[in-house]
Design brief:
Strand order of the largest sheet: 8-15-13-11-9-10
Helix content: 25-40%
Largest sheet: 6 strands, mixed
Radius of gyration: 30 Å
Number of helices: 19
CATH class of the largest domain: Alpha Beta
CATH architecture of the largest domain: 3-Layer(aba) Sandwich
Strand content: 15-25%
CATH topology of the largest domain: Rossmann fold
Number of domains: 3
Distance between the termini: 62 Å
Oligomer: single chain
CATH superfamily of the largest domain: Methylglyoxal synthase-like domain
Structural class: alpha/beta
Shape: elongated
Low-confidence stretches: none
Length: 518
């Protein structure tokens, strides 16, 4: 007779799995709640304590950590020295190990990481020790032991046992899954307990949510992963898709950029993103007006883009959106009438994320390199300290527009220049190798569209994501009627730009903080 050890937290499917093992002549060892459930279903099993001759102690913290258990798992069957030791110590082999770990991930989704470092008792008690040890031991000895950590593999194992077709390849696949499972589990724990920003060693828990149609290009394979408990966070990957085909790799990148930017605004706002850059952004008194103002900034680039709203979409806005082709729309909600309008378009994807996005404190973001990775704290601030650099102070209207333009510039690829009137972008220059070229691009965009704004009421302002190394941007911006500029400041040649601004009666403020985006 062969023996299986069953010890699971999630009891779904375990009774049927045990029944099938019994029909195949297997003996079962089980622990705690699993043993109780099997016996309630008239399935004979031995409890772990019966095998070890030692009771569960320390409120269940120690159950299976015993040579009678681990010896039976780790012994190499064709090693005479191992088999002699098993006989000497009266240890029987364990040939299947089925373990489901304590629900640490579920617990931390309900108990946020405390800022004061006082870890909740329930978090500590849901760190599995014995289960992880069992999985690792069985996975290490995969040539002789079948290890199961996923209920979705129950049927596969039973089928192969019935057909006497349990191959080494199958056991290796199950073992590698077990090691991935314990690594993911341990990474959740280590990240939750770690407060050091850049520890010497770190892990990133990643769980696959879905395969994607392809990557940035059709010849690239791609998948979507989450870093743990995303379901309770106001992020794009936890948004609910209401309509349309599956999202692509590029869709996710653009949705992420648009969703973060639109959350910078308190009033109804709309952001249109193309190739990870905003090509239009506006804040207004209503969602429809915000959309129309965002669209008019660069309607050509907006075609096939991504739209984000920080409010619920009503029918009037949906009707306007439906006039053009857009890949995706993400909003905090949709009225039934708006849904009816937009769902008539087969190729649009509709997402809803009801929770407003707020950057996590001390969050770290990663970028991959060949055989390496960069890590940095997220750009979760907007400015340091406002300082007027020029003789003239900004007017109230200029200050409000400068604030708007500065928020937009944070999300534009460097080198970035944003031209704005009121709370509306009118020209955006993104990703240029020089700042003056970024300005030229923004100006060309602005020239192509009649924005319908009263220039006397809505002054033209400019935002730059980084400082000016030369006065050329100031001089060129004066030619197109810019009256106010916001930039980080800090160049050794700041004085040259200040003099140029004063000469043209342009007010210029420094934020003390740059926003490079690569």
């Amino acid at each position: 007779m062969t023996t299986a050890l069953l010890s699971v937290w999630d009891k779904i499917g375990i009774v049927n799995f045990a029944k099938e093992l019994k029909l195949l002549g297997w003996g079962i060892i089980s622990s705690g709640g699993t043993a109780k459930l099997l016996k309630e279903n008239y399935l004979k099993c031995r409890e772990v304590s019966d095998v070890t001759g030692f009771p569960e102690i320390l409120d269940g913290r120690v159950k299976t950590l015993n040579p009678k258990i681990h010896g039976g798992i780790l012994a190499i069957r064709n090693n005479k020295h191992h088999t002699q030791q098993l006989q000497c110590h009266d240890i029987e082999t364990i040939d299947i190990v089925v373990v489901d770990l304590y629900p640490f991930e579920e617990i931390i989704s309900k108990i946020p990481k405390p800022a004061d470092k006082k870890i909740h008792y329930d978090v500590i008690e849901n760190i599995d020790i014995g289960g992880v040890a069992l999985l690792r031991a069985a996975a290490k000895n995969y040539k002789d032991v079948i290890v199961v950590c996923d209920i979705n593999d129950y049927a596969l194992v039973i089928e192969n046992l019935k057909n006497n077709s349990v191959s080494e390849e199958l056991k290796l696949g199950l073992a590698s899954k077990a090691f991935r499972h314990t690594a993911y589990y341990d990474s959740l724990i280590s990240n939750y307990l770690t407060y050091e920003k850049f520890p010497t060693q770190t892990t990133i828990p990643l769980k696959k949510l879905s395969m994607l149609r392809y990557g940035e290009n059709p010849h690239q394979d791609a998948a979507l992963y989450s870093s743990g408990t995303e379901q309770n966070k106001p992020v794009v990957i936890s948004a609910k898709q209401l309509h349309g085909k599956e999202l692509s790799y590029n869709n996710y990148l653009d949705l992420e950029s648009a969703w973060h930017l639109v959350q910078e605004f308190n009033s109804p706002a709309c952001v249109i993103v193309k190739h990870n850059n905003p090509c239009g952004c506006a804040e207004s008194i209503c969602v429809k007006d915000a959309y129309l103002k965002a669209l008019i900034c660069d309607p050509l680039s907006a075609f096939g883009g991504i739209i984000a709203f920080n409010r619920c979409i009503e029918e009037d806005t949906a009707t306007e959106i439906s006039k053009l082709f857009f890949e995706c729309v993400i909003a905090t909600g949709y009225s039934q009438a708006a849904s009816d309008v937009l769902m008539k378009k087969k190729n649009i994807r509709l997402l809803v994320q009801k929770m407003p996005y707020k950057e996590e404190k001390n969050a770290i973001e990663y970028r991959t390199l060949s055989h390496g990775m960069l890590a940095q704290s997220k750009d979760d601030q907007l400015l340091a300290k406002i300082n007027t650099m020029t003789k003239r102070q900004p007017t109230k209207e200029e200050s409000e527009t400068l604030d708007f333009a500065w928020k937009v510039s944070k999300y534009v690829k460097s080198n970035a220049i944003v031209l704005a009137r009121g709370k509306q972008s009118v020209g955006i220059g993104a990703g240029q190798m020089s700042r003056i070229d970024a300005l030229k691009t923004a100006v060309e965009k602005m020239k192509k569209v009649n924005h319908g704004l009263d220039e006397k009421i809505c002054p033209l302002v400019l935002a730059s994501d980084a400082f000016f190394p030369f006065p050329d941007v100031v001089e060129e911006s004066a030619k197109i009627g810019v009256t106010a500029i916001v930039q980080p400041g800090g160049s050794i040649r700041d004085i040259d730009s200040i003099k140029a601004a004063d000469a043209k009666n342009i007010t210029m403020i420094a934020t003390g903080m740059r926003h490079f985006k690569h």
